[in-house]
Amino acid sequence: MAAFSDLNILHMENVSTKEKLLMAIKLGYEVVAINNYVENVLVKDDKGKSKKEPSKVVEIPAPVKVHLTERDIGDLKVKGASLKQLSRFTTVLSDPGQWRRMQEDDIQAYDLLAVQPTTEKLFHMACTAIEIDIITFNIGDKLTYYLKPAPVSKAIERGVHFEIVYSEGFHSSSRRTFIANALRIMHVTHGKNVIISSGAREAMDVRGPYDVANLGLLIGLQEPQSKDAISTNSRACVLHANTRHSVKSVISVRSSSELKAEDQWTVEACRKEASEESGDDSSESAAEEADSSFDAARPESKRRRMDGV
Amino acid sequence: MYERRVITKSEFHYMRVSLDVQNPAKALPVELTNVYFKQAVTAALTRLFGDIGGAMVAVDVLKYNEGDRSAILRVHSHNLVKLWSALTLTDRYMSRKCAFRVHQVSPYLMGLAVNSREYEHT
Amino acid sequence: MSTPTQDSAVYSELPAGVKRQATQLKLADDVRDGSAYLSSFLRRHVAPRNLATAAAANDAHQVVLLDTVVPKKRPSSLQKKGRRQLNARERRGVDCFAASTARQTYRTHVPLHTLWRGYMRSLLQLEPSRALAADAQHRLLKADYHGCVLTVARSRCPSLVGVAGIVLQETRCTWRLVTREDRLVTVPKATCVFTFELEGHVVTLYGKHFVHRPADRCSKKFKSKATIDL
Predict the structure, then answer these.
(1) Which of A228, A262, A273 to mutate to test the interface with C (most CBs of C within 10 A)?
(2) What residue segments make up the domains of chain B, in order of their start?
(3) Is residue C8 domain-resident?
C-alpha cells in the first residue's frame, strides 16, 4: 500500500507551517504537499475586466519547503520512512485566460497544480483540456454548477484527481453542504480518482489517516476506496504531476548533478563505458579491469568520474 | 474491488480515544471529568446526525483517564462508522480548538491491550 | 487428301453472280470449288503432325481438337525483377532475428556504442553545462538506440532491476542487450524504466509508453499519457 498523504496543508503567512508538518508527522503521514493558495493570478483593472500587464502582474510566491531536523522526523525514521514535502499551487479558475498565465515558469515550478472552477464551462475545461493535477471545490458552499459524468470520466482517464477537503466539515454552518457536495463528488466519480485532504489552516485541523479513511466510508466510498483516497490515489496524483515534467510522458531528462546518491548506480554502466572510451583504447587492460555484474543497490561500488562532469 | 467479510462478528466495537486540545498547558474553562467527556462525545454525535440520529447511537465510556484525557468507548458495531466520523469532525470543545485522536479500534476489548504488529511472542 | 464431293452439305458453292465476276474479283481458280481452298487453309493453320488427322476428321465430319490450349501466362512483376522478398514464414526460417549467443560478446559491440555516442552528440548538440533544448528532447523520442548502454532502473519484475548492457536489437516490445558477462538478455519494455547518461544528462525512458517498433517510432506522434507509473 502506498504511504499516507495529505496533499493540502495550507501555507499561511501568520501561522507556522512547520507546526502543521510536525502534527502530520506525529499522526503518521509520509507525504505532504504545502499549498500556496492565490485567488486570482490575473489582475483585474477598475472596470472589472481581467487584464495582464507587465507592471501589474500578480506576484506568485515561490514554492515553500520547510526545513526539518532529524529529531523532527524521528517518528518516521523509526518506521524506516521519511517525510516527502511537495509544493502545490491552487487558484480559483474564474476566467479562461488564467490558464495561459498558469503556464508560466513561476507557477510551473510547483510540483502540483490545482484549480477550483467556478462555472460549468470552466469545470469542463479543467477536466478535459488543461494540464493540471487536482480539481478542487469550495466544498463548504453550495456548488453553482452540475458535475456531469462525461467531463468527469474524461478527467479520470487523463489522471486528474478530485479533492475533498474535510476541514470544511468542522464548522456547523458548512457541514451540511460539505456532506452534500462530498456525496455528489463521490456519486459522479464512483469513488475513482478521489483524494481527501485536510486543507489545514492550523495544526489542530489535521486528522489521522485512519480517521480520514473513515470519513470516506461516511460519504459512501467502499472500504478499499476510502483507504486509497489518502494513499494510492494521492500517489497516482503525484506521479501524474511528474509526468507533466517529462517529454510526452515517455522520456524525462535531468542534469547529472541532480541525480541523488542512491540513484547513481542507474548510470554506472554508461559511465564505465564512457571512461573506458576516453581512457586508453589500445590496451586490453581496461577490459580486464571491468567489474562484474551490476546489482540493484550498490552505493559502495567503484564509480569512475566522467571527463568534464 | 474487494470486499471484506468478517466471519466472527462481535456485537460491539471498542475504541481507545483521547481528546487533544490546543495549548494543553492552558487550563480548560471546565475541567474534563468523565461526565463531561461523555457529554462531549454525545454532543459530537448530535452535531453531526441531529437530535434523533445522535440519540440512536448508544455510546458507553468504559474507562476514562483524566490525566491524559483518554478513554475506552464501546459502541454497537453497526454504529462504529457514525461514532468515528462524529469524533473526527469535532473541532471544538467549549470554544477551545481540539481534536479527538482515535488510537485503537477493535471488535474485542482484549484487542486494545496489545498492538499485534509490534507484539513479540516470547 | 481426298476432295469433298460436289454435293457435300458442308461446303456450298459460291453464288452464281460472284462466279461470273471471278476474273474481275481476281479470285483464284481453286476458290470456286472450295476443296483447294480447304487444303491450303489446313496447311496454313494446322501443324504438320496433325495434318493427316485433320484431313481424316474433315472427311468424317468430326470435330477434333488438334492443339491443346495453353493458358497465357500472366507476367509476374516479381519474376520480372529477378528477386523477391521473403515472406514471414521464410524469414523465420532464415532466423535473421535470432542472435546467436555464442557469437555475442560485450567487447565486440563496444565500437557500436562509440558510434552511437557520436550519433547522439550530433543529433542532440549536447553540452554538459547547458540543459537539453526542448526540440532536442523531442528528437530523443525518435532516436535510434542501437548501441546505447541501457540500465533497467526500475521494473515490475525484481530480477530485471540492475540489468545493463549494450542494445543489440530493438523490437516492438523488447530490447535485446548484451551484458558485460556476454549474456544476451531480452528485456520487456512495458514493465521497465530505463536510464542512460549522455554528456552530463541523465535520460530516463518510461518503457510503458515506448512499446513501438523503431521504424514506427520515427513517424509516430506521441501523446501525453496519464501517468508514468510502472
Answers:
(1) A273
(2) 12-109
(3) no
Domain boundaries, position C46: 16-82
3-state secondary structure of B10: coil
The C-alpha atoms of residue B62 and residue B74 are separated, in whole angstroms, by: 7
Q: Domain check: are C122 and C194 in the same one?
A: yes
Task: Enumerate chain B positions whose Cβ falls within 8 A of a Cβ in A.
Answer: 1-4, 20, 22, 47-48, 81-82, 84-85, 87-92, 97-99, 101-102, 105
> Which CATH number does the domain B12-109 belong to among 1.25.40.10, 2.170.190.11, 3.90.550.10, 3.30.70.3250?
3.30.70.3250
Percent of chain A whose predicted confidence (pLDDT) is above 70: 86
Task: Please tell me the predicted confidence (pLDDT) of residue A280.
Answer: 45
Cα–Cα distance for residue pair A164/A176, rounded to 1 Å = 14
- Chain A CB contacts of B92 under 8 Å are 170
Selection from A180, A98, A96, A99 nearest residue A138 by Cα: A180
pLDDT-based confidence at residue A178 (cuts at 50, 70, 90): very high
Say what the pLDDT of residue B121 is: 76
- A interface residues, B as partner, C-beta within 8 Å: 27, 166, 169-172, 175, 202-208, 210-212, 214-215, 217-218, 222-225
Strands (E) in A79-189, as ranges, are: 84-93, 112-117, 134-135, 161-165
Residue ranges of chain C with pLDDT lower than 70? Answer: 1-11, 28-34, 64, 66-68, 74-83, 95-103, 127-129
Q: Is residue C63 part of a domain?
A: yes
Contact list, A253 vs chain C (CB under 8 Å)? 131-132, 137, 140, 201-204
